[in-house]
Q: What sequence folds into this?
């Protein structure tokens, strides 16, 4: 039941907000098409001299093996997202629908990890990764990213809303616990699962500090390190950083749109109305 | 839906297997690992690898250069040097931190130390030393500020660009002539591009030439006391002069972007920057016609001073430290010094190289000579230099923003610095 | 009775089994380094690198340091500015997006709001520095169009924290919007139908049906936003570096500087313990106060 003008107002506001949010990216994209003197030019011109000037993009890939960085980031972020999805969903279900001694303490203990500043854990964690011989390896880069605390939180909150009757009914029907988890619980929380995948993927994709500390070889570097490679202690190469940033956003967007499609299909199939 | 999930899981398992596999590229030949955060000097860094290949023919070790991002390098160095096995053999940083605050450096062999002591310009001899012992080799010369002027703006203001101001008073007068105000009284062009944002350590670095020109120093000569020095009458006068540039004389502005951008955009006529800067101007603002001169003097001349003396050091726990020192010996000669620095367009370090054709052809040749002739200004190579400079820099910034008078701000900073020193 | 007890036992075992992988992982990867870091708060790094046990001396030192409390004040101010705004706007946007029946458009606009969250903070900081530039920034440019005077934004003592808060809101909006949107999409249509049969109008539906059903997510978003804004580092580090003169220095920036620029790991661990304790307290408070068990 859409009220005609009210609907338009809502759409209009959402769209206007979207434009405001998007504007900085427009500037970023435009800057990536400018040459260095153009960026310094006064008074500032919004449009680049040549819209087809892709020199910066070319230099980004020439100066550093940026393609390899993209691959590394994609691999690391994908594994991190999938493993988070699995383990966090299991844990979220356990916390949401079961009672066992120490449940709340354990839950808060896990959430507590979010409250610890990573900067204070990085050196001890590095020393452990070093002892295990995992420096400069994919496993080392993934070490702190395999399970998401936020994921546990998110899945718990989402699964909490699944009517317990369904689960009880399935138990009476004799489904094993894992089976119930797989067949009843997970499909009901498809949107949350998609959200977790997107956010975890993206989080790991944009991580800078841990990869900086644990990666040494150029062929193991990730996209964020590549980006930072266009800045140094004296100045920032605006033209290259913006070009690299535009390149680095594209895969994230792809994952995002894929996950959205998954959610849509899941919602439609499970009969829940959006 | 189910099948899709199984497919996803099997892909994930395969990916995990790939991920768990050890990384490729474990060195077959022996390598000396060299860590540097000088990302802006790739040619300079590549030189180590090129020469490393020559070195390998005689000694069997190649050199692998790892460039670490400057942002966050301290954390990476600390973790690696504490971890021993993942650590570099040679690394670039500040001696008083890694050899003073920590004990990660190997002592330089006496013969090599002698070579360097004898061949460095006098202001650089103490760079790379801690408590009189040499650990590191300085790699950067000309890392002291000099005066860059925009020739066209000078001419437009009626000042002869070939006769720069020599004293602070002359300089201030020139700055006033070079400042253009709009009808509302706000500057559209300033005389001096002043650094007012960023980490306080950088702010301190940019203010120190003025402090030294007033005859002030941040710490006692023994680097053990701040009160009486950081808040001396000379320092107060220097900070007053500096903050007046913004607050009273209006020849510098807090509304302008970074000083480099302001100079490159021709909105500031003068900037104090180190010798690498003219490379930046040539690349980013090729239409700015500039000249380089020595800094103006006050009671004293600012001289060649710096807060960030970068050196190459050898890791104490490296299993390859003999080979590392051999490599350092291998490249410790005038030719390598000249070749390496020339490849990047920066100043070589050996005194004998300062009269080569390459250096003579640089726009900063005369100004560098002039400043090197001046007495060496105070240096602050102390393990806690970052923390001390931060406390000091906060006072400077507060004064620039008009959030207090120089004297009370400096008194507070000096007290804080003494607490840091006493800790 | 035995059947019931057996059932409860099976329940307990199953529950533990489900949370085991996550618990084991976090113990290995975080608990151990965390314990080492906390232990480190009782040690002082001496000149030369050796550590010396000093008991609670560092705690006294840090907790009586005015600079430390200054950064805490800055952080809390930033929190109060960012968190409510982010949560409210995210909810509003999610509701708006939810009403877009055309799913293709919804994807596009959700992606747009999500973009800031997907970009590296280095690049985002660059962009915002330009927007806030006092002379060339588009913000002052727009203000001039309406006749307002220009502001110094990131270079102003008074405006730097609100300016950074805005950047935080921009960056985190997509995250919370996504969470709310997912939750809205999971609400079965029957609830809305039942409400409209009961004759509830739009606002009543929102207040009695939507909001309570979103309670778990609202609680989570509130807790997460407080945690993330308290820990804010990258945006500040990349834009103002704590300036001008410490006006925007946050607790984590102080922690980072203390650990890696001042080389005082013990002091940094004390700050970390403080952050952890404060956030734990805040989270527990929120959990107790705002959670409501919803009957299904």
A:
């Amino acid at each position: 039941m859409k009220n005609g003008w009210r609907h338009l107002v809502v759409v209009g506001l959402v769209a206007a907000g979207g434009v405001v949010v998007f504007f900085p990216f427009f500037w970023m994209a435009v800057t990536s098409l400018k040459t260095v003197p153009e960026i310094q030019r006064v008074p500032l011109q919004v449009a680049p001299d040549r819209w087809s000037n892709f020199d910066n993009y070319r230099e980004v890939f020439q100066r550093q093996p940026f393609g390899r960085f993209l691959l590394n980031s994609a691999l690391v972020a994908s594994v991190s997202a999938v493993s988070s999805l699995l383990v966090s969903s299991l844990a979220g279900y356990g916390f949401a629908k079961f009672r066992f001694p120490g449940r709340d303490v354990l839950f808060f203990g896990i959430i507590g990890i979010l409250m610890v500043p990573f900067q204070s854990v990085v050196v001890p964690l590095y020393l452990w990764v070093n002892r295990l011989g995992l420096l400069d390896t994919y496993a080392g880069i993934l070490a702190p990213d395999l399970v998401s605390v936020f994921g546990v939180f998110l899945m718990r909150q989402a699964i909490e809303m699944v009517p317990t009757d369904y689960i009880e009914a399935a138990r009476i029907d004799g489904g094993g616990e894992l089976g119930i988890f797989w067949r009843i619980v997970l499909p009901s929380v498809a949107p949350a699962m998609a959200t977790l995948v997107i956010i975890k993927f993206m989080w790991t994709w944009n991580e800078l500090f841990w990869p900086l500390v644990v990666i040494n070889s150029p062929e193991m570097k990730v996209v964020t390190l590549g980006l930072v490679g266009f800045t140094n202690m004296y100045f920032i190469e605006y033209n290259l950083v913006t070009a690299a940033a535009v390149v680095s956003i594209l895969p994230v967007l792809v994952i995002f749109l894929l996950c959205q499609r998954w959610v849509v299909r899941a919602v439609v199939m499970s009969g829940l109305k959006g | 839906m189910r099948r899709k999930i199984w497919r996803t899981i099997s892909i994930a398992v395969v990916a995990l297997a790939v991920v768990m596999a050890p990384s490729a590229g474990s060195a077959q030949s022996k390598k000396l690992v060299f860590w540097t955060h000088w990302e802006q000097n790739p040619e300079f860094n590549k030189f180590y690898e090129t020469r490393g290949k020559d070195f390998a023919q005689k000694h069997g070790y190649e050199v692998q250069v790892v460039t670490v991002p400057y942002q966050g390098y301290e954390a990476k160095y600390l973790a690696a040097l504490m971890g021993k096995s993942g650590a570099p053999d040679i690394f670039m940083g500040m001696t008083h931190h890694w050899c003073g605050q920590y004990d990660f450096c190997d002592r330089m062999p006496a013969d090599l130390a002698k070579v360097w002591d004898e061949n460095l310009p006098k202001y650089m001899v103490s760079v790379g030393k801690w408590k009189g012992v040499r650990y590191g080799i300085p790699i950067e010369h000309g890392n002291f500020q000099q005066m860059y002027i925009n020739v066209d703006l000078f001419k437009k203001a009626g000042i002869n660009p070939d006769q720069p101001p020599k004293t602070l008073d002359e300089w201030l007068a020139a700055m006033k002539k070079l400042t253009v105000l709009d009808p509302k009284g706000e500057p559209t062009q300033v005389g001096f591009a002043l650094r007012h944002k960023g980490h306080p350590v950088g702010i301190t670095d940019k203010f120190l030439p003025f402090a030294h020109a007033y005859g002030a120093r941040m710490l006692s000569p023994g680097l053990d006391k701040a009160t009486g020095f950081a808040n001396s009458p000379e320092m107060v006068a220097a900070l007053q002069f500096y903050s007046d540039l913004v607050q009273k004389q209006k020849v510098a502005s807090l509304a302008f972007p970074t000083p480099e951008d302001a100079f490159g955009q021709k909105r500031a006529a003068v900037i104090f920057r180190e010798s690498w800067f003219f490379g930046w101007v040539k690349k980013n603002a090729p239409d700015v016609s500039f000249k380089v001169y020595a800094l103006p003097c006050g009671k004293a001349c600012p001289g060649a001073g710096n807060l960030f003396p970068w050196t190459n050091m050898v890791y104490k726990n490296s299993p390859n430290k003999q080979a590392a020192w051999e490599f350092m010996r291998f490249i410790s000669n005038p030719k390598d010094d000249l070749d390496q620095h020339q490849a990047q367009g920066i100043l070589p370090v050996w005194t004998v190289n300062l009269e080569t054709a390459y250096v003579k052809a640089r726009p900063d040749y005369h100004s560098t000579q002039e400043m090197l002739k001046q007495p060496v200004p105070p240096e602050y190579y102390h393990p806690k230099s970052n923390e001390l400079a931060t406390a000091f820099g906060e006072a400077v910034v507060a004064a620039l923003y008009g959030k207090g008078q120089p004297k009370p701000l400096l008194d507070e900073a000096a007290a804080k610095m003494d607490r840091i020193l006493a800790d | 009775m035995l059947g019931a007890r057996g059932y409860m036992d099976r329940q307990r075992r199953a529950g533990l089994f489900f949370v085991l992988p996550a618990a084991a992982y976090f113990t290995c990867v975080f608990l151990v380094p965390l314990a080492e870091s906390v232990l480190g708060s009782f040690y002082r790094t001496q000149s030369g690198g050796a550590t010396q046990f000093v008991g609670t001396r560092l705690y006294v030192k840090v907790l009586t340091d005015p600079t430390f409390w200054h950064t805490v004040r800055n952080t809390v101010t930033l929190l109060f500015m960012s968190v409510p705004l982010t949560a409210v706007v995210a909810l509003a946007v999610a509701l708006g997006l939810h009403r877009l029946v055309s799913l293709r458009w919804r994807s596009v606009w959700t992606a747009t709001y999500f973009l800031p969250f997907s970009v590296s903070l280095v690049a985002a900081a660059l962009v915002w520095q330009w927007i806030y530039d006092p002379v060339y920034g588009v913000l002052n440019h727009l203000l001039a169009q309406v006749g307002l005077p220009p502001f110094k934004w990131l270079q102003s003592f008074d405006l730097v924290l609100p300016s950074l808060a805005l950047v935080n809101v921009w960056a985190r909006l997509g995250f919370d919007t996504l969470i709310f949107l997912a939750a809205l999409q999971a609400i079965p249509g029957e609830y809305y139908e039942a409400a409209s049969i009961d004759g509830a109008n739009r606002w009543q539906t929102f207040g009695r049906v939507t909001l309570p059903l979103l309670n778990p997510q609202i609680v989570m978003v509130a807790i997460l936003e407080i945690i993330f804004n308290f820990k804010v580092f990258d945006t500040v580090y990349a834009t103002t570096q704590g300036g001008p003169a410490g006006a925007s220095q946050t607790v984590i920036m102080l922690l980072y500087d203390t650990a890696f620029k001042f080389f005082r790991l013990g002091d940094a661990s004390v700050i970390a313990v403080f952050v952890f304790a404060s956030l734990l307290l805040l989270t527990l408070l929120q959990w107790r106060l705002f959670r409501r068990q919803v009957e299904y």
